[in-house]
Automatic annotation (TrEMBL):
<keyword id="KW-1277">Toxin-antitoxin system</keyword>
<dbReference type="InterPro" id="IPR007337">
    <property type="entry name" value="RelB/DinJ"/>
</dbReference>
<comment type="similarity">
    <text>Belongs to the RelB/DinJ antitoxin family.</text>
</comment>
<dbReference type="GO" id="GO:0006351">
    <property type="term" value="P:DNA-templated transcription"/>
</dbReference>
<protein>
    <submittedName>
        <fullName>Addiction module antitoxin, RelB/DinJ family</fullName>
    </submittedName>
</protein>
<dbReference type="GO" id="GO:0006355">
    <property type="term" value="P:regulation of DNA-templated transcription"/>
</dbReference>
<dbReference type="InterPro" id="IPR013321">
    <property type="entry name" value="Arc_rbn_hlx_hlx"/>
</dbReference>
<dbReference type="Pfam" id="PF04221">
    <property type="entry name" value="RelB"/>
</dbReference>
Length: 101
């Protein structure tokens, strides 16, 4: 049997449970999945998947030009004037639904 070393990682319990459910369906123990991930890091000499920010992420106010900021404010005012508004409760409910919270 090959020598092994321990790897300890702290993750959110919910994330661990979700990953375990997927891995169980695939028939792969968590330790094997971690080993596969580490092997791919070595083989590819980096993280084995693309890492980038989503293209449609909202701009931070500090990143906006004055014209972009004015355009965003205009869109918000237009939405209010046309009744396209949501209560805080509706927004919270939708976030919970979308992100399974």
């Amino acid at each position: 049997m090959a020598r092994t070393a321990n790897v300890f990682a702290r993750v959110e319990p919910e994330l661990k449970e979700q990953a375990e459910r997927v891995l169980d369906q695939l028939g792969i123990p968590m330790s094997n999945a971690v080993g596969m991930f580490l092997r791919q890091i070595v083989l590819q000499r980096g993280i084995p998947f693309e890492m980038k920010l989503p293209a449609d992420r909202p701009l931070a106010i500090g990143e906006m030009t004055s014209a972009q900021f004015d355009a965003e404010l205009s869109k918000g005012i237009n939405d209010i004037e046309n009744g396209r508004v949501y209560s805080a409760d509706e927004v919270e409910s939708e976030v919970r639904r979308l992100y399974d919270l």
